[in-house]
């Protein structure tokens, strides 16, 4: 039996340094590619504006001026606050109910099989089909918009959580049961931690759909927020103003997605540490 040689401290330092350099080069390459794509998009906007005019594509500098003007006069901050109120409330409610519902459906297979056809039936129905019903229930108030966002984001979170819980590591589950772990301990100490990647994927999908659902709600119900600004600018063919709002929505989506990814990385490191500690 031969011993496996372990790297010395200088060798480990050299390996770590090379890995850090490789990550830095890859990061620089990614940033360079992103900048190049952004420049090409801006050049394309200028070219399309020159060929077709402002009605088809506004100039990027006109969009920037309109964004600054709408920010300084309070139009965008007010609309952003209204949009975030609906988005945050709808997503938080859908996250709580979706995760809890997924834990129940995934942890109790019999309940999951009973509810499966009903969940699938509502899931495949477009959320827009429920808009008249929501208006009848909640009128055109903020509650109706929050309900639409919840309905749009609830099922991706529910289904991903259900799948993660149902497919939790069987060896760990059986080992915990052999040591006399109760159902509650199985849920919170074994099944839920093992299902975290699926749960976080559902939350990431859910927050993206929540953003879309918020804009749809603001377009189809009482027009307010960023969706209301889009409608007003589109009806008047003010394309520079329209694109300024689109830029805000894109930035909002990037910030939300980046936040969810940071949470995923944090819990990913936690799961690795937990696995190494076992």
Automatic annotation (TrEMBL):
<feature type="transmembrane region" description="Helical">
    <location>
        <begin position="28"/>
        <end position="48"/>
    </location>
</feature>
<keyword id="KW-1003">Cell membrane</keyword>
<keyword id="KW-1133">Transmembrane helix</keyword>
<feature type="transmembrane region" description="Helical">
    <location>
        <begin position="84"/>
        <end position="106"/>
    </location>
</feature>
<dbReference type="InterPro" id="IPR035906">
    <property type="entry name" value="MetI-like_sf"/>
</dbReference>
<keyword id="KW-0812">Transmembrane</keyword>
<dbReference type="GO" id="GO:0055085">
    <property type="term" value="P:transmembrane transport"/>
</dbReference>
<comment type="similarity">
    <text>Belongs to the binding-protein-dependent transport system permease family.</text>
</comment>
<dbReference type="GO" id="GO:0005886">
    <property type="term" value="C:plasma membrane"/>
</dbReference>
<keyword id="KW-0813">Transport</keyword>
<keyword id="KW-0472">Membrane</keyword>
<feature type="transmembrane region" description="Helical">
    <location>
        <begin position="118"/>
        <end position="140"/>
    </location>
</feature>
<dbReference type="Pfam" id="PF00528">
    <property type="entry name" value="BPD_transp_1"/>
</dbReference>
<protein>
    <submittedName>
        <fullName>ABC transporter, inner membrane subunit</fullName>
    </submittedName>
</protein>
<dbReference type="InterPro" id="IPR000515">
    <property type="entry name" value="MetI-like"/>
</dbReference>
<feature type="transmembrane region" description="Helical">
    <location>
        <begin position="146"/>
        <end position="165"/>
    </location>
</feature>
<feature type="transmembrane region" description="Helical">
    <location>
        <begin position="209"/>
        <end position="230"/>
    </location>
</feature>
<feature type="domain" description="ABC transmembrane type-1">
    <location>
        <begin position="80"/>
        <end position="260"/>
    </location>
</feature>
<feature type="transmembrane region" description="Helical">
    <location>
        <begin position="242"/>
        <end position="260"/>
    </location>
</feature>
């Amino acid at each position: 039996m031969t011993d496996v040689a372990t790297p010395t401290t200088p060798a480990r330092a050299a390996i770590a340094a090379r890995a850090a350099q490789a990550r830095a080069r890859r990061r620089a390459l990614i940033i360079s590619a992103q900048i190049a794509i952004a420049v090409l998009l801006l050049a394309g906007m200028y070219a399309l504006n020159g060929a077709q005019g402002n009605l088809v594509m506004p100039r990027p500098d006109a969009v920037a001026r309109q964004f600054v003007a709408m920010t300084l006069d309070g139009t965008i901050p007010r609309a952003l606050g209204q949009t975030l109120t609906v988005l945050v409330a709808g997503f938080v409610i859908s996250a709580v109910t979706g995760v809890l519902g997924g834990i129940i459906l995934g942890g109790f297979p019999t309940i999951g099989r009973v509810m499966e056809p009903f969940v699938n039936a509502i899931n495949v129905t477009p959320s827009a089909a429920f808009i008249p019903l929501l208006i009848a229930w909640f009128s055109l108030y903020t509650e109706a918009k929050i309900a639409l966002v919840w309905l749009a984001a609830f099922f991706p979170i529910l289904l991903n959580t259900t799948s993660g819980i149902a497919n939790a590591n069987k060896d760990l589950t059986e080992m915990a049961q052999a040591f006399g772990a109760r159902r509650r301990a199985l849920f919170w100490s074994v099944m839920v931690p093992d299902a975290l990647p699926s749960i976080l994927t559902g939350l990431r999908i859910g927050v993206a759909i929540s953003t879309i659902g918020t804009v749809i709600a603001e377009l189809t119900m009482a027009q307010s927020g960023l969706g209301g600004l889009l409608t007003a600018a589109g009806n008047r063919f003010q394309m520079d103003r329209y694109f300024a709002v689109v830029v805000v929505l894109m930035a909002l989506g990037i910030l939300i997605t980046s936040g969810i990814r940071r949470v995923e990385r944090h819990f990913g490191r936690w799961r690795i540490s937990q696995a190494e500690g076992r």
